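Case study 2.
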Amino acid sequence: MFKITPSSHDAEFSISASNSRLFAEEAIELERVSKPYLGPDKKLIVDLTGVRFVDLSGIKVLLNLMSEEVELTNCSAHILKVIKALNCSR
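Prediction:
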């Protein structure tokens, strides 16, 4: 469901979503696989290429990851708009 790829830098990792949706089940899995790569001396990039549908569970996980300084890449404009709207209401 998610592919984890180390980069050329020891503390940098990328997680690629291989599904077109990020609903509750996938959100829980993304949160689980991300945890070991979070921390002050680590950099995590989550590649959302191909993800077109995200429910509230998925948005919450993405917001939590962003609060941990995780970089989201290749996120659709619609999903970014929803993330920004919900982030402003926090």
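Residues 2-88 form a domain with the Transcription Regulator spoIIAA fold (CATH 3.30.750.24).
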